Amino acid sequence: MPTPITVPLADALGFQLREKAAKYVLENQNRTGAERGNANEQGYGALAEIIVRNKLGMPEINPADHPLGFDVLLDSGIKVDVKCRGGKMPFLEKYGSDDGIDREAKHNFFARQLYDENLDADIYLMTHLRFAGKGVLPGTARQRNWNLYVCGWVSKKRVLREGVYLPRRSITEQGNTWFAYRGQEIEFYHRNLNGLNAITDLQTITKQAVEDDEKRIGDLNLTSVDATRIAYDLVGRGILTREHLKFVQKETGIEGKIPKPILHANQYFHLLKWLSEKGVVSTKEIEQAKTILKEEPFTGI
Hints:
9 helices, 3 domains, single chain, elongated
């Protein structure tokens, strides 16, 4: 799994770059196009690009006539699109959950961007911005939590080939929370990126390296937990067998562990009690459920 590169942005240079990104978005904010980011989100992308260009010794702002399809042109001719998301937390390679099973980190792409032939990037550089306060650029010079995490790169063709497309309103899990996607997303997991030891290593990426990555067979673009949940469901639907389920659990490293359900355990127990009232199941099944699920009574606000 690639180890993210941490770029501190709380020093004088970091604040200067944050100011530059804020000014750039103020003067060039994109107010058209489907699913565009808001001013803050556009600022995070601009900041990530400015930082990468700074580390590569390039002018920090692209010229006005620069093509829209990519952000950085490497010496090898490789076109790089820098992707960035922001949040109050640092980049986490795994998210904890109350069932004791970690969820692996993923990266997201807007599907419309990947399938747009006019956006002709060769590779994506995935980054994460940790912001301070409310996340409004540039922040202040005294805020200490500004950091950019450079996570790794992947070829556009491999994302299209291996990433998982999810339509609007699809549900995704992050640790102990779920939320619905507002846009059309493609999920690609952090473990499947190519790592970098330094941002300057981007200049060592050759066309052959990109072609090799386009053919590379990566691992699951699902969390181990979701892979197991899907296997459970397919067993219940008569498509897979319990042997398939065991294989998935072993391959994902969560053999012997029980992921929590997406629905609350209280709903499971409600169904079991209803079935019991109908005389379909006995207390035996309910007691068995209690060994793997925990009912949660109301204890007050």
